[in-house]
Amino acid sequence: MADSLLLKIEKQLKDFSKGQRMIASYITEHCDEAAFMTASKLGAAVGVSESTVVRFATELGYGGYPKLQHAMQEMIREKLTSVQRIDVTSKRIGQKDVLQFILQEEIEHINSTIEETSKENFYNAVEAISKARRIYIFAVRSSEALANFLGYYYSMIFGNVTVISTHSETEISEKLMRVGSDDVVIGISFPRYSKATVFAVETARKHGAKTIALTDSLISPLADSADYLLLARSGMASVVDSLVAPLGMINALIVSTVLSRRDEVERTFNTLEEIWSQYKVYKKSGEDDSLVTK
Q: What is the reported pLDDT for 161?
């Protein structure tokens, strides 16, 4: 996305008005600041009107300033080091309350996810998962937590689930060598995108498996190899990747899958409840510790 934005600016620079060239120059030189400015603030920083900024976004083909802003944010997320992220976040928060600032951003990420994700892709993905012979879930780095969460519940529901987390292309190829048209592979990655996850989804696609990508953008490197693309807006909070909206998408996947196979899932969980009760897996409030099996 970074290259896409800069390339668009470079190609159209000669056709811009004086004000638009000023905006282009500011974005190119100060993208880490511009990415988190409103159209009004960006205009004030450059010395042009808010309407000039909005027209600039439209001229670039983004259909409005919010989409241009998202492109700028993706540009810095892909390129900034962890140390640079801390600096950018510090400037953005300033003297604001950190808790309120971060939680408000998560709300905005969830709202954007609701607006941007394809319901058709979502329900097609649910159907593919429900009918799959085997389900493979692949993610590394911070996205691995999402894969493990999804894998935990899907393992109880289906029993035919494999969670893969490795950076080795050899190991990825070995673990996916038996996948076929009856299988589903779910790849999860957010900026900075993992090459290993892209390779895993590409490999699965070559083997004929149905592929599902949980990522943040239509131009994510996972998108090209995905049969079904699930978009969840991620963000950057210092060195921490914001994964609240992606986790919400995963919860929706789990719930939809449960509802599509309700009778089978109910039988499974009735059996699990008997096991949990027999071995006292969960402790009730006020329960004597001596009654709990260790």
A: 97
Query: CA 248 → CA 140, 234, 262, distances in Å?
Result: 19, 11, 20
N- to C-terminal Cα separation, the chain: 52
* pLDDT tens, position by position, 37-76: 889 999 999 999 999 999 999 999 998 898 898 888 877 7
Pair 70, 202 in one domain: no
Q: Are residues 128 and 182 in the same domain?
A: yes
| Domain boundaries, position 48 | 2-114
Domain-ending residue, one of 55, 88, 114: 114
Q: Residue 93 is part of a domain; what is its CATH number?
A: 1.10.10.10
- Residue 80's pLDDT band (boundaries 50, 70, 90)? low
**pLDDT tens by residue, 242-281:** 899 999 999 999 999 999 989 988 999 999 999 999 998 9
**Final residue in a domain of this structure, among 114, 146, 180:** 114
35 residue type, one letter? A
Q: Into how many domains does the chain fold?
A: 2
Band (pLDDT 50/70/90 cuts) for residue 174 is very high
Is 214 within the bounds of a domain?
A: yes
Q: Helix axis angle, 98-116 relative to 244-260, nearest 10°?
A: 50
Do the beta carbons of residue 236 and residue 73 sit within 8 Å?
yes
Q: What is the mean pLDDT of residues 7-30?
A: 89
